[in-house]
Design goal:
Length: about 160
């Protein structure tokens, strides 16, 4: 592992989170690829990590607790990404989170027409790929890397804190 201080690692995680969110919004709003509900949920951990790191920089206390929270946040990100990847690959069935409406709940033709007008993207349909991989795959790998990095920082907190 590179020999940086805690603030440098937090800045790197902040930049990764910021670039991830900017990329997602660019792909959605500039390139026109509509995200599914799980794609939208996968953005939440990056937003939370940005907020936590900003709080950490201003408060300068409880950094170890914030690192622990970041581990939890990116663990959640990994689990959601893994679930989404499983749906894309056909290992798991789509759930209600994906916006697939149960047709037995539609009672009238007006409700059916209303459901048809709502544009929902299926979680199993990959609309954007980079080097043949879905963004969910990249998110899963990135989340795992960040978890490993943060666990290492948490376990060696005293060493990282002394460098800063």
């Amino acid at each position: 592992m590179l020999n940086y201080n805690l603030n440098t690692y937090l800045k790197i995680i902040f930049l990764i989170s910021l670039i991830s969110l900017i990329s997602a919004f660019f792909i959605e709003y500039i390139l026109g690829h509509q995200p599914c509900n799980l794609c939208l949920i996968q953005r939440v951990p990056y937003g939370l990590s940005i907020i936590l790191i900003i709080i950490s920089f201003f408060l300068r206390k409880d950094e170890k607790f914030i690192i622990f929270l970041l581990i939890l946040i990116f663990s959640f990100s990994f689990l959601i990404s893994f679930y989404h990847f499983g749906i894309e690959q056909g290992f798991f069935k789509e759930s209600a989170v994906c916006g697939v409406e149960n047709s037995s709940k539609i009672l009238s033709k007006e409700e059916l027409l209303k459901q048809l007008q709502i544009k929902t993207v299926s979680c199993k349909d990959v609309t954007f790929r980079v080097f043949g991989f879905s963004l969910t795959t990249f998110n899963m790998i990135l989340s795992l890397i960040l978890i490993i990095l943060l666990i290492n920082i948490f376990r060696n907190y005293g060493k990282f804190k002394k460098k800063g």
